[in-house]
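Summary for the steering committee. The consortium agreed at its last meeting that each partner would contribute one worked example illustrating the joint modelling workflow. Our contribution is presented below. We chose a case with several input lines so that the handling of multiple components could be demonstrated. No manual editing was applied between input and output; the record is shown as generated.
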Amino acid sequence: MTDLTNLTLTETLDGLKNKQFSATEVTQSYIKSMEANRRLNAYVLETPEVALAQAKEADTRYANGTNKALDGIPMGIKDLFCTKGIRTTACSHILDNFIPQYESTVTQNLLNAGISILGKLNMDEFAMGGSNETSYFGPVINPYKADNSDADLVAGGSSGGSAAAVSANMCVAATGTDTGGSIRQPSALCGVTGIKPTYGRCSRYGIMAFASSLDQAGPIAKSVKDCALLLNVMAGHDDKDSTSATVAVPNFTQLIGKDIRGLKIGIPAEYRPDGLNAEISKLWDDGIAMLKARGAEIVNISLPHTKYALAAYYIIAPAEASSNLARYDGVRYGLRVEGNGLDEMYINTRSEGFGKEVKRRIMIGTYVLSAGYYDAYYLKAQKVRHLIRNDFIEAFKKCDMILTPTSPTPAFPIGDKSMQDNPINMYLNDVFTVSVNLAGLPGMSIPMGLSEHGLPLGLQLIGQAFDEQRIFQVAATLEQDAAFKRK
Amino acid sequence: MAIDKETVKRIAFLSRLRVEDDKIEATEAEFNKILQWIEQLNELNTDGIEPLVSVNENNITCREDIVTTGNHSKEVLANAPQAAYGYFTVPKVIE
Amino acid sequence: MSEYIITTEKGKWEVICGLEIHCQIISNSKMYSGASTVFGADPNEHVSFVDAGMPGMLPTLNKQCVHQAVKTGLGLNAKINKYSAFSRKNYFYADLPQGYQITQFQYPLVGEGKVVVDLSDGTTKEIGIERIHIEQDAGKSIHDLDPKRSFIDLNRAGVGLMEIVTKPDFRSPEEAGEFLKKLRSIVRYLGTCDGNMDEGSMRCDVNVSVRPYGSNELRTRCEMKNVNSVKFVMQAIENEAKRHIEVYESGGQIAQETRQFDPVTGQTKVMRKKEYAHDYRYFPEPDLLPLVLTDEYIESVRKEMCELPDAKKARYIEQLGLTPYDAKVICENKEIADFFETAAQGRDAKKVANWLMGDFFAMLKEKHLELKDSPVSAEHLGKLVDLICKEVISGKIAKDVFVIMTDTGKDPEQIVEEKGLKQVTDTGAIEAIIDGVIASNPDNLAAYKGGKTNLLGWFVGQVIKQSQGKANPAIVNKLLKERLDK
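What follows is the complete predicted structure of the assembly.
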């Protein structure tokens, strides 16, 4: 029998339905893979017994014909999703041993559809980072290595554990969250497929908040169709999240395989700045050619405020984060470092509990909201956010969808000095992805090829709000034409 | 708008974070670098542009006034680093 | 209008005061969670994961809290803002689990309004309402259970509050006191807040400054937090104003600061100086979308409004003939007004008011009873007045009947029946008593005939006494006069 962990979610479901193998067998294969690949540091908590118990129930349902949409699919869950009774830390020391007494809506939806949970996946601390190096549990190692170096490479971030685990067949699929590129960028760097849905598509309830107006959950998986099947289950209005959309959830697989002839694909000039990595530039051209060959119409568009998106993002996201992370104070859960008096206890706890990047962003966020600076920074950034969204509204008058690179570079070595020394260099990794979050649009990364040195590269499709269906449609053609093969 | 050492200390306290004395200078420099980068936004004229608070343009939907949860102090306190008699406890607050 | 001027050896001063009142909204569940608002549960039992600020928890707005605040706004003649939005107010405190309070800042639910207060000299004054916004209450810190630790109970955390901010329109402690009473009366009428200041369901922050009488300047103000009775609010204004004047007159300056009122000494002391104050870093709450109300909604709330104390008072004076004083006292409390209206239904309302204001309130006071615990029901009080009006019993007997009613809770008709207290109006029976009285008092009869006509009253008294109080005094009077003057 072939290694079950090589199968996509779609193939696994078929095999389960056809009784080629059992959910327990699938789960056991993944548990073995999880153990074999511990070197990658993708999981921060393995829950094989939980997964096996859930798989057993799935097998019962397959036996009696009551199987559900994703029954018996073993998944990894980003450690930002609260899972009832299973330690959830956001990969922060400040949430040492936090065991939620509740389940996030997204994971509950997945559990209701029959998945089993293999464990909790590594990530940048509180999802703040682009390389998974800010995790309290250490960096995730990219399953890929450059063919000219033995250096361990980053998996991207913040959902680095999710992308690496899917890439290395340590789970069929994983959940991720994306505030500025945290699903798409690691997906690109690890050669897997991931979508950040429209803001409001998936409930944020039970997902530890980083920047509430930008955060959105989504799937990372081995194929476009896998992502669509997962999003079918993850999405939907939730009364427990006032910002979750009341829009109906269509069948996201419906347009997959349909002709894209006549669809207008926008190519934004601003995404090809001087000095863009030549490999990335070529990959993008190849993608454009593929869509053109399929009969899509290529339209040149402009998103004039693109260059300001990162700066606006690095005001808005830290501002919201500074407030969202105030609750980690050592009183009700998590780490507590005693001190003389309440304020000292707060300061001791938070100084020891948060890592360097998180502290940096809390302080920047506090500063931009503080008296006398609010208008100059926060309000200004929100106005720029409006301009950025207007750019997209204008662009979508000329095209149905936008194609861009996902990340400006392939995976880089862990501990890269220029990024460690200058946080702005790290922030620049999000240059192609943050605008999508600021505008609340859906964006998907599709693995399209390998760099000169054998590292995965991805392209990004940006759709109109709530138009994920057509993203999946176009993404599926790119997937087919690029025929990217995971290692 | 450059940050000075006093501001670093004030922001650290507002954030309830400690910046060790020997790190204040480095923090100040780093913040100024980031702020300088952020201030590229000032190139843009945003007069008359409304701030975008949320991309969700709907209005809030309200919840019915029904009691749906409670009487589970054990779960509420389950992760408390310190608790006594059903209360969370903190170092004594002198008001 | 009599002015409140503080006169010292050095000059005359005027007080400027504004109030911020936090009213706990009456609702079943909390503002942003489905936990109960009922007071008095074991610690942390009425706490949802949202209230406890657990990671990943999100607020969801309770429609009843909005409804109650709109109703209150309408009751204060205020503009309801169809667009309002939520903000976060950031600060660290042990009983603030999220590290921020969800409140409204730039876009409050209710805008400007006004309230008319009645002053003791018979004049009225209009007090401006600046705004009302809705926000969540904090939990409670308990400091006296342990020498080294404070205890945190989050049962109150997340209960809905309306913060009512007045304009700085108060010029005397009395105005502020009367405003608070009026406000309390209005929210109780509306059922939007129970208005119990001593239990903390209505809490008052007082802002005070002074200026030389006649000037228009605005001087530095001080804020006193959580003053918890009308009396204390009035004291706090008076004493804080005096403190300011003393400082100014001795050449000093007032620092802008938050002070605490000590109910024992009546004085204020500094809590924290403004320069160390919080920087609240307000910003739009990204977890809650804006609140947008329609005209239809606002009108539907308006239709639910009951008659408020001012309108009721006017009606009592104009239509029922009550004195302004009686009308004010009865209207101040909706329960009393409801009781009065039940008792007065279809009767001489003024007589009912007299009984209510007199014997009835005296009885409650003497027995230390709340209205709801009164042994005398509104219906029974009304019947008692009926018995008097229909001359079934005299006013004097009625007082005795009332005492029996308070002791037994019985129907006055039943009491009169059982005790045989019906007034005697049968002239034959009365004449028989008159005959007896005259027969046994020949000396007084002679004296009367001799010109001492003021003895009539003595004869009347004797006759009524012999009838055991049941003889109708008017009839006795008439018959006696006829007999004596024969």
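The CA atoms of residues 5 and 421 of chain C lie 58 Å apart. The two ends of chain C are 60 Å apart (CA to CA).
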